[in-house]
Design brief:
With 184 residues, the protein is of the alpha+beta class. The chain has 7 helices and 8 strands; from the N terminus they run βαβαββααββββααα. The protein has a single domain, classed as Maf protein, CATH 3.90.950. Strands 1, 2, 3, 4, 5, 6, 7 and 8 form an 8-stranded mixed beta sheet that branches. The N and C termini lie close together (12 Å). It catalyses: XTP + H2O = XMP + diphosphate + H(+); dITP + H2O = dIMP + diphosphate + H(+); ITP + H2O = IMP + diphosphate + H(+).
Length: 184
Amino acid sequence: MHKIVFVTGNKGKFAEVRDILKNFGIEAIQNKDGYPELQEDELEPIAANGAQYVANKLNMPVMVDDSGIFINALNGFPGPYSRFVEDKLGNPKVLKLMEGEKDRSAYFKTVIGYCEPGQEPLVFPGVVEGKIAYEERGTGGFGYDPIFEYNGMTFGELGDEEKNKVSHRRRAVDNFLEWFIGGA
């Protein structure tokens, strides 16, 4: 069985990735050490830099995840600042920002960064399109899941198993697996 160190302090992210990888015979090992996060408007350089930093620090191959929700009516905000906005404002205030907005389209994006020590990092994006609900719905998932609607249900309503089949993180991990398994 392959083992991959996944660097995140986020229990929800780790559980989602762990559950996806185990279906492919890969064991995810959580490392909560973190890494210096670039302040960028795009997720790709953040994930690439983080993966390279940790791979060289730990001297082993690692995977990191940088994710965000991009709301079109807010010009892509909060995007790469999603965690900060979630911590400071939370879903109720994001919904308040959306009051009166007709365009509720949004997308979740995850970029998986993978790097081996001394190598250049690789990035694997995944996107899922949806819209911002008018209220929080569902108790599943984490973060923005209760306000992100996909095919009529929020990620918070879908439950982990269903969400893990269609999520942005799933799509990014699938892109990674296509490369990893194809090249293994």
